[in-house]
Amino acid sequence: MIADESRVAGWYHSPMTVGPEPKPIRTGATLHSLCVTHGPLRTFKLFVRAYGGKTDADLDGSHENTETTQKWINLYDIMLENFKGEGRCVTMDSAYIGDIMAQVGRHEWKMNMVGTSNENRTGADMKEEKNGMKKGTYNIVMFQHKTEALNYAMWSDNNIVRTLSNFHSPEILSKGLKRKKKVDGVRERAQTPVQCPKQNKDYSETFHLIDKGNGAEAKYDIILKSHKHGWTPKLSVRYFNMNLNNAYKVYCSLVDTYTPGKRYHKMGDAVDRAAHAFLQKGESM
C-alpha cells in the first residue's frame, strides 16, 4: 500500500488552508490517502481523510503506544485499522515516517514500512557523514539500530536522499537504479545503472504510483469553481471522483477476469455513462 497527502484547491482565505507541519498547505484542503500498490486494482483508494486543522479531535491526543501527542501515529492507527496484523507493506514519504512510527508499525500493527525520512526523526548522528557526501556521486552511508530492525540510509543522488525502513537489511544493490550521470559537469543523455540501497529501490518503484493514480483521476474531475460555498461541495466532488475511479478499477478487473479479450469502456466513457445513470434516478426535475 502507499500513503500520501494530496490537495484540494481552494482560495487563500478559506478556513482549511493551514495544514500540519512540516508541510503547511496554504492553498487548499489536505487529503491523506491510502491506495493499493500492485495488481489489477492498483491505485484503488482504501482510505481518504481530510485534515481537520490543528484541533482535529481524532488526532489531537496521545496514542496508547506513545507518551506524547503523535498526530501521525493517531492518523495511521485509523488509516490502517483494517490491515493490521497481516504483514502488509506501506510506502510513505517524509511527512509521516520516523523511528516512532516505524517501531509502532512493526511491533504493534505488524506492518512493514519504508519511506523517505527527515534525519531529526531517526536519532542517528550523521552530521559528519552528511557534510562529506557529494551530490551525484551515488555514495551510500547507512545507520542500523542496535536492537531494533530499523535501517536509515543516505544516498547521494541528484540530492541526498534519506530513507528509513523497519524491515530492510543494510543491503546495497550494485546496479539498483538507472540514472543519467554527470561527467565534467555535463549530464549524459543515456541512463546507466548505479548503486543504491535496496530500500531506496523499493521506495522509488512504488511511491510514484499514488501520484500517477491521482493524475488519472484528475483528468475526469467534475469542475466546481465557486467562492460562494465552503469546503463541503469541493470535498464532496473530490470524494465522488475517487469513488468513480475505484468503481472503474473494479469494472476493468471484472472484464479481464470473466470476459477476457472483450473491449471495455475507457474511463471517460465510463464516467459519462455512470453520471447519466445517476441523473436518471430520483424525482424528475
Report on this structure.
With 285 residues, this protein is α+β, with helices and mostly antiparallel strands. It folds into two domains: 2-127 and 141-170 and 197-218, no CATH class; 220-285, no CATH class. The protein is built from seven helices and twelve strands. The protein has helices at 71-79, 99-107, 127-132, 198-204, 208-218, 231-258, 267-279; strands at residues 2-9, 28-35, 45-50, 89-92, 112-116, 140-144, 151-156, 160-165, 172-179, 182-183, 186-187, 192-197. Strands 4-5-8-7-6 form a five-stranded mixed beta sheet, sandwiched between helices. The protein has a three-stranded antiparallel beta sheet with strand order 1-2-3. A hairpin with a 2-residue loop joins strand 10 (182-183) and strand 11. The protein is globular and about 70 Å long. The protein starts with a strand and ends in a 6-residue tail after the last helix.
Secondary structure topology:
Elements lengths: L1 E8 L18 E8 L9 E6 L20 H9 L9 E4 L6 H9 L4 E5 L10 H6 L7 E5 L6 E6 L3 E6 L6 E8 L2 E2 L2 E2 L4 E6 H7 L3 H11 L12 H28 L8 H13 L6
Parallel strand pairs: 4-5
Antiparallel strand pairs: 1-2, 2-3, 5-8, 6-7, 7-8, 9-12, 10-11
Essential attributes:
7 helices, five-stranded mixed β-sheet, alpha+beta, three-stranded antiparallel β-sheet, 12 strands, globular, 285 residues
Structural class: alpha+beta
Q: Whole-Å distance between the termini? A: 42 Å
- Poorly predicted runs: 11-22
Fraction of residues in helices? 25-40%
- The ordered string of helix (H) and strand (E) elements is EEEHEHEHEEEEEEEHHHH
Q: How many structurally independent domains? A: 2
Strand order of the largest sheet: 4-5-8-7-6
Summed over residues and divided by their number, the pLDDT gives a mean of 79
The biggest sheet amounts to: 5 strands, mixed
What sort of overall outline do the alpha carbons produce when their principal axes are compared?
Answer: globular
Q: Tally the helices: what do you get?
A: 7
Total beta strands: 12
Radius of gyration: 22 Å
Strand fraction equals: 15-25%
